[in-house]
Amino acid sequence: MSQTLFFIIITLIKCLLIIAIFAALAGFATYLERKVLGYVHRRLGPDMLGPAGVLQIVPDMIKLFTKEDIIPYMSNSIVFKIAPLISAICAFLAFAAVPIFPEFSLFGHTIKPIVADINIAVLYVAGCSSLCFYAIFLGGMASNNKWALIGGARALVTIISYEGVSGLCLLAIVLLTGSMSFIDINNYQEGGIFSWLIFKQPIAFVLFTIAIFIETNRTPLCLSENDAELVAGYGTEYSGLRWGMFFIGEYASMILGSILISLIFLGGFNDFYFIPGFIAMILKICFVFSWYFWARGAYPHLRADQVMRTCYLILLPLAAINLIITAICAL
């Protein structure tokens, strides 16, 4: 088999695996969240179907696939139908430039666990992630529902604002490592635990994590939906598979956020003492992913003015100061 043909086949397999694995994990994450929140709230959560209720996701999927697809009267039907696709597609596109495991050999060929190792991977992932908020805004705007419109507009404002914070944090990392490639950023942290960027950029780590919570619409910083104010926010009028696609995109973005935090700040897929790199990476991703559930179970929603005031009066100035100090130290 020629090298070119092998590359094409491996790339197609990688794309299929990304879609299949992360779509399945996104569905399983809904079960995990309900189970964890059940323990936090001292209730059972799913417990009837399968061991510990793990098969609950099967009837949930059947319900989503068979539930009537309703399009509201006087809505913009074309935009209403396209918005969930944007949410899912943009979330999966971002995975193309993100490595998860170290490279390995197969049939005499070196396999890199990344679809495209591009030298502007940070910029590419930031761009793909930024497109996801268009799905939220367009879905709310096209629904012909005032609560959906308000939810979409609030999400648009907050995500754009907090993307400034995450962008400044990523720029500080690029200045420090001298590369926009995630593989280079990972290799920069090869020297052991004290080479991890969480110790060199603690402010960027905290600010980037907060921004990830905003960009993935997670409590307590989510303004796109709030049971006390907006019912289901931008997704109020959605049902069935279209509603499910929004949340597949949301949970895929949560997984992507966990991978980015682990890769950029927590040593990536480098070996951790006696733990092989790929196992260490899985443990880090699971640990970071659990923060979403912990925060949702522990804290209530913040008000819109609190979220925006925190961004412009505290987080953006801190991110700018951290960038300036990093630039001076990198000279």
From TrEMBL:
InterPro entries: NADH_UbQ_OxRdtase_su1/FPO, NADH_UbQ_OxRdtase_su1_CS
Keyword DNA damage tagged: no
Membrane topology: Multi-pass membrane protein
Predominant place of localization: membrane
A Pfam family: NADHdh
GO MF annotation: an example: oxidoreductase activity
EC number: 7.1.1.-
Subcellular location: Cell membrane; Membrane
Record's keyword annotation contains Transmembrane helix: yes
Catalytic activity: a quinone + NADH + 5 H(+)(in) = a quinol + NAD(+) + 4 H(+)(out)
Keywords: Cell membrane, Membrane, NAD, Oxidoreductase, Quinone, Translocase, Transmembrane, Transmembrane helix, Ubiquinone
Residues annotated as transmembrane: 6-32, 78-101, 121-143, 155-181, 193-214, 243-266, 272-295, 307-328
Function: NDH-1 shuttles electrons from NADH, via FMN and iron-sulfur (Fe-S) centers, to quinones in the respiratory chain. The immediate electron acceptor for the enzyme in this species is believed to be ubiquinone. Couples the redox reaction to proton translocation (for every two electrons transferred, four hydrogen ions are translocated across the cytoplasmic membrane), and thus conserves the redox energy in a proton gradient. This subunit may bind ubiquinone.
SUBUNIT field: NDH-1 is composed of 14 different subunits. Subunits NuoA, H, J, K, L, M, N constitute the membrane sector of the complex.
UniProt similarity note: Belongs to the complex I subunit 1 family.
Protein name: NADH-quinone oxidoreductase subunit H
Organism expressing this protein natively: Campylobacter canadensis
